[in-house]
Design a protein that fits this description.
The chain is built from four helices and 64 strands. With 866 residues, the protein is an all-beta fold. It folds into five domains: 138 residues, Sandwich (Immunoglobulin-like), CATH 2.60.40.10; 239 residues, Sandwich (Immunoglobulin-like); 181 residues, Immunoglobulin-like (Sandwich); 151 residues, Immunoglobulins (Immunoglobulin-like, Sandwich); 83 residues, Sandwich (Immunoglobulin-like), CATH 2.60.40.10. The longest helix is centred in the N-terminal third of the chain and has 7 residues.
């Protein structure tokens, strides 16, 4: 099967007419003039269309709304982000009240210092069928302060934004004042001398389990050194914290009641356990194998993981010598998912079960499995995992000496039956920045992170190996091409150097041994052929490969005997798995292990001073002057209204721009943008954002990357021609009492390792070799016309031109002259001046409007009529 990536890129590729919408997903603020006031910023949590600079556009738009809220682990609204307690930022996108799916929402953070991070790091998320897009926001723990989570989206030509304020703490917060502890649960009422038992307590909020992590501290009343107890534990999502108590001689001469206390900052609770004195011997927990106390789910062993564990206890007399040939009864704290002891479970009981006097008659006494101690007093039992992740303890009981009426009792440490092999659907690849200043410089670094989880979305075991192969640069140089997971994730670096592909786009594939996906239709957590779903087209994985030539298939696409052509210097790199030395493109038709994988493109962006930084302005952001007398349309420009007396709002227009490095790749993350060489009669604000942001991970896509050479073709709104720019906007304002004539300004860019350079300025659709280094600004009314007073109340008006969107339409269909005396002249475009007679002399205001493409453009001027 071809490479599958879990991000939204694959879905976009199936539905997008072209990659332009994908690659310029940030909301672009467009304007076609300067007649209107700037839109005010919406209140946080709401949304507004991105503003434009007016111009008499009378078209009707649909109502696109984006809302944003922050919620905690319980789903409650919050504005606090504490260390270790991440929150969810959830955006909801609607259009005319209907939920909008499969649109990009771009999340970002405005913060005075590094307070929080967003996951995924790229911040781009597709809306689901319910219109929602969600990212996780986590405190970095370094500083305390406030900031804003921002979200932006675009539906058609309408862009909207939303925001939510937050306060981030610089360290773990104390427990909320409303938290309380439930009763302290101790696994057994009594414990043998030198024995072990479990402790459990639940953190509650208003009587319900508190799902955010909380640290619970445990202490015991035993003298120092006479017992060990888990000092602290962090609660699980169900609010439960687990600990262990081990006696080290707390009851020397007589049985002793030991108090175990659990505490948080707002509450404490205690429980007690009877510790037996060693006057009759003791039953001690010795060990568990594997030593990390973790085994995998049934059916998912291998790759260094086993599905069973051996737990050993030892029965000793008062002198500490092993007691041989004595019955010990075993049960476990849970048999969920088919877990069993030496093959025995509540559904498969041993032939000779232990008595209730020995084994007890409490809820744990379900199997009552009895074994006899070895000559050294040891006895071992094997736990075989089930199909459900769970913690489990083994309880051992023995009546010693034979005349004893109360059995010795001890528990093992907690054994974790948790994660299995990672699944393809839970293999996630991200990058801190895919656009690095590596086109002209060696040693620039992009950090890749892989996250893996099993069938239950539990992190894979620490030490799981992930391999990386790239089509260029250097990958994982410090780790011999691989990394090992900790807490389900691991990272390695891509470092710029030769080889650099022709398009400066390196493909990196990460892969690991894992399991193919399946649909667990009967809900038993196991794959059953013929019962559960397994798609041969979507879930049956062929061998992985690095799609170096970016054509979307391995080699020539043959599934039987593929050849591997080189396209513009790039040849796919096979990663065989099903056979040792030959790649197998198709899956084997059987659900099992495979190389699970994901790929991303890393851009070795050209440096500012060594490349050709290019900024493209979409035509929808610009205007043209269209002649009404048969002349040609002008070149595009930014229009401002030609009037700005003192103490009046300055005319302004906001335009969208798209910046690349000159060969179709984004400039490197951290590249700065600045306005330079502005005319004295224009005041551009800074570009927003003022630096190039990090681009996230995406797999190679033929529609974007082919041909895998420099992208020489022009960018248009309907066809990006493989260009991958970053989006920036700028607001251009007039200068008081100087709003006349023409003006210009330029864009200066500076990449992290490059020098300052003036960007080439292209208008949408222009060839890349067009020579222009500045943005043109003109102060013009929407309609230009000449009005002449002829005397005796007679005037003539000659409409000459109108100013409208550079994207068209370029043909006017109707001209209307409002003479200001209650009369109008409607008609087609006049070829000669239109005459009118006023009944009285005086100052008259004449308005001329032009209709083009269903939009009305108008201007007026006053004339003295004698």
């Amino acid at each position: 099967m071809h490479l599958i990536h879990s991000s939204g890129w694959a879905a976009l590729a199936r539905r997008a007419a072209h990659a332009a919408a994908v690659l310029t997903a940030a909301a672009l603020v467009a304007a076609c003039g300067g007649d209107s006031e700037p839109a005010s910023e919406p209140p946080f949590g709401g949304s507004t269309p991105a503003g434009s600079g007016g111009g008499g556009n009378g078209s009707t738009k649909s109502n696109v709304v984006l809302t944003l809220k922050l919620t905690d682990a319980a789903g409650a609204s919050t504005s606090t982000i504490a260390t270790g307690q991440p929150v969810r930022a959830q955006a909801v996108l609607t259009r005319d009240g209907a939920l909008v799916a499969n649109e990009i929402v771009q999340f970002s953070v405005e913060q005075p210092v590094e307070l929080v991070r967003i996951d995924p790091a790229a911040g781009s998320v597709l809306t689901a069928s319910d219109g929602t897009a969600v990212v996780t926001v986590s405190s970095l723990g370094a500083s305390t302060g406030a900031g804003t989570i921002k979200a932006s989206a675009k539906v058609g030509d309408e862009a909207v934004t939303a925001g939510a304020n937050f306060f981030a703490s610089g360290s773990s917060t104390t427990s909320p004042a409303s938290l309380a502890l439930g009763p302290v649960q101790i696994s057994s009422a009594s414990v043998s001398a030198y024995g072990t038992t479990g402790i459990q307590v639940q953190v509650l909020r208003e009587g319900q389990p508190y799902t955010s992590p909380v640290t619970v501290n445990f202490t015991s009343s035993c003298a120092a050194g006479k017992a060990s107890v888990t000092s602290s534990a962090t609660t699980k999502p169900n609010g439960v914290a687990d600990g262990t108590f081990v006696d080290n001689g707390c009851a020397q001469t007589a049985d002793a009641t030991v108090t175990i206390t659990a505490s948080i900052s707002t509450d404490s609770k205690s429980g007690s356990v009877l510790v037996r004195a060693p006057t009759t011997g003791s039953l001690r927990f010795l060990s568990v194998e594997p030593s990390d106390k973790s085994i995998t789910l049934r059916g998912q062993g291998g790759n260094g993981r086993q599905e069973n564990a051996t737990v050993t206890f030892r029965l000793v007399d008062v002198a500490g010598q092993g007691v041989a040939d004595t019955n010990v009864c075993f049960d476990v704290s849970t048999y969920i998912g088919g877990l069993n002891l030496d093959g025995y479970s509540p559904t498969t009981l041993p032939a000779n079960r232990g008595s209730t006097a020995l084994c007890g008659n409490d809820p744990l006494s379900q199997v009552r499995y009895v074994k006899r101690t070895n000559p050294d007093g040891t006895v071992s039992v094997q736990i075989n995992s089930g199909t459900v992740p769970t913690p489990v303890r083994v309880r051992a009981r023995s009546l010693y000496p034979a005349t004893a009426s109360v059995p010795l009792e001890s528990f093992s440490d907690t054994l974790s039956i948790s994660t299995g092999l990672p699944l393809q659907r839970s293999f996630s690849l991200s990058v801190d920045k895919a656009n690095i200043d590596g086109g002209n410089f060696d040693g620039e670094v992009a950090s890749l992170t892989v996250r893996l989880a099993d069938q239950f979305s539990n992190p894979v075991p620490d030490g799981t190996v992930v391999n990386f192969i790239g089509s260029g640069a250097a990958v994982c140089t410090a780790n011999n091409g691989s990394c090992k997971t900790t807490d389900g994730a691991c990272s390695c670096n891509v470092v710029s150097q030769e080889r650099r592909p022709a398009d400066n786009r390196v493909v990196v594939t990460a892969y690991a041994v894992g399991m193919e996906d399946f649909d667990d239709l009967n809900g038993d957590n196991l794959y059953t052929p013929g019962v559960d779903g397994f798609s041969l087209t979507l879930q049956d994985l062929g061998d992985a490969y690095v799609d170096a030539n970016k054509d979307g298939k391995y080699g020539d696409g043959s599934t039987t005997a593929p050849t591997n052509p080189t396209i513009n210097g790039d040849t796919d790199i096979p990663i065989p798995y099903q056979k040792n030395d030959v790649i197998t493109v198709k899956g084997d038709g059987v659900r099992g292990t495979a190389h699970i994988r994901a790929s991303t493109v890393i851009y070795l962006s050209r440096a500012s001073s060594a490349g050709d930084p290019t900024v493209v302005v979409p035509l929808r952001s610009l205007d043209r002057s269209y002649s009404l007398t048969g002349g040609a349309a002008s070149q595009p420009f930014v229009r401002l209204k030609p009037i700005c007396p003192k103490d009046t709002p300055m005319p302004q227009a906001t335009i969208a721009t798209l910046l690349d490095d000159g060969i179709g790749n984004p400039m490197a993350a951290g590249t700065t943008l600045a306005v330079v060489d502005a005319s004295t009669n224009v005041a551009p604000a800074g570009f927003r954002p003022s630096s190039v942001l990090a681009v996230g991970a995406r797999p190679p896509m033929p529609g974007i990357d082919l041909p895998n050479t420099e992208k020489p073709l022009k960018w248009t709104s309907s066809d990006a021609n493989g260009n991958v720019p970053t989006a920036h906007s700028i607001t251009v304002r007039g200068v008081e009492d100087k709003c006349a004539g023409n003006a210009s300004f330029a864009l200066e860019v500076k990449s992290p390792r490059g020098g300052s350079a003036t960007a080439r300025v292209l208008y949408e659709g222009e060839p890349k070799d067009t020579l222009r280094s500045a943005f043109a600004v003109r102060y013009l009314d929407q309609v230009a016309f000449e009005a002449r007073a002829l005397g005796a109340g007679n005037v003539t008006v000659m409409p000459e031109a109108w100013v409208g969107s550079a994207a068209g339409p370029s043909a006017a269909t109707k001209v209307t002259i409002d003479w200001g005396d209650g009369s109008k002249t409607d008609g087609t475009i006049p070829s000669t001046p239109v005459a009118h007679h006023y009944a009285s002399a005086g100052t008259k205001t004449i308005a001329v409007s032009v209709v083009a493409g269903g939009v009305t453009y108008s201007s007026s001027q006053s004339i003295d009529v004698p």
